From TrEMBL:
It comes from the Bacteria. Keywords: 4Fe-4S, Electron transport, Iron, Iron-sulfur, Metal-binding, Repeat, Transport. Pfam families: Fer4_8 (PF13183), LUD_dom (PF02589). Residues 303-333 form the 4Fe-4S ferredoxin-type domain. This is LutB/LldF family L-lactate oxidation iron-sulfur protein.
Amino acid sequence: MAVSEADFRARARKALDDDNLQAALAQAKGGFVDKRADAILDLPAFEQLRERGRQIKDHTLEYLDTYLDEFEQNLNSAGGQLHYAADAESAREAVLRICREAHARQIIKAKTMAGEEVGLNEALEAEFETVESDLGEYIIQLAKEPPSHIIAPAVHKTRGEITELFDTHHHGRSGGPLRETPDLVNEARGVLREKFLGADIGISGANFLVADTGTITLVTNEGNADLSTSLPRVHIAIAGVEKLVPSMQEASSMLRLLARSATGQQITAYTTFITGARREDELDGPEELHVVLIDNGRSRMLGNDYREMLRCIRCGACMNHCPVYSAIGGHAYGWVYPGPMGAVLTPMFRGLDKSSDLPQACTLNGRCQTVCPVKIRLPHLIRQLRDDAFEQQITPATTRWGIRGWAWLARRPRLYTAVTGLAQRLMSRLGRGSVRRAPLAGAWTAGRDLPLPGRGGTFQQQWQARQRSGQDG
């Protein structure tokens, strides 16, 4: 379910022209933002908790090798097995090998962004019947699309589109009446119940991995992950190495941050702790538990300027508050991670040369950093990627020459003042208000009017005039 190989700009233009997508985005825009704001008001110590979360993640990353060893030992003691995967291919192979050895026929899969990252669905569907258990993931699986949001994968789908999907795949018909959301949910629940009961293997992600107990922590609001991990005889959890935390105490702090930042809840409806395979005195749980830990570029990030991005707990707050994401949705970003987090993670995992447009698709307004629960300096990292693209000559030559020209001018204050003053006077002669077309501004005017400067001079001239006026007064 890979997205089109067309470049970011083409995908963004297509998204802006998609009326259904714009309607879905408009409907979803306020929900995450407003709920998060309300949840934080209920916790006066939220800023202290953010700082605590940053410290936990930085400490764990500093001693990651130690916590990896501790997690493996405790997982093994609890009856689980750990599999290291250096890259996406080895992660897929590890999961496929476990499925083959278990003689699996049917797989039920809970939501996992790590699984999306390594292309797990495509590999599984080539050999096994594989069904997503998360409602949003199930919808986009039917549509053969990738997720457009890491928390709400089908946020780009309208109710009418979901009705049409269910009619086609569940009933073999088209053009049925629009159904209400509860009816659609109940229909999906009935279809998935049979899949839960018939699955040989359940696959999940992991929100956190607790080193001192070997515990997998999962959070959902549907309970689908519990059924995916407890009913099948084999459970496979796939996660990045950065998901580790030292102990349950740290996991508790991170859970308080995650729920408020992601969905505006004090805590998610289902918070599950899984420690090892089923024991003799337990009534449910898998006979085998496997954890596939993926690197896939994370070790490289540990040693470079983008290390703090490994703090990310995949809450989605940065994209919920991003004006660019709100305008074009997730698919325009071209890979698993959209929004500000994707603007950093995609170049890290897939190469800056393949995704150089993403760091440019940012207004640098800073809202993502303000709302990040672990204080990742996303605008700083995005600017750094722009610098890297410039230095590596990935940025187009015309843009590089333009930046060099502006830098040359900006380092000469008198000349800069004279040139900007001349430009202001010339543009002010075009009239007042705005214009629909202007030389060298076609990209701007293609989507909006260009405001014209007033006749009061440049910003610097107006500021100096006000300063003089204040002193005279």
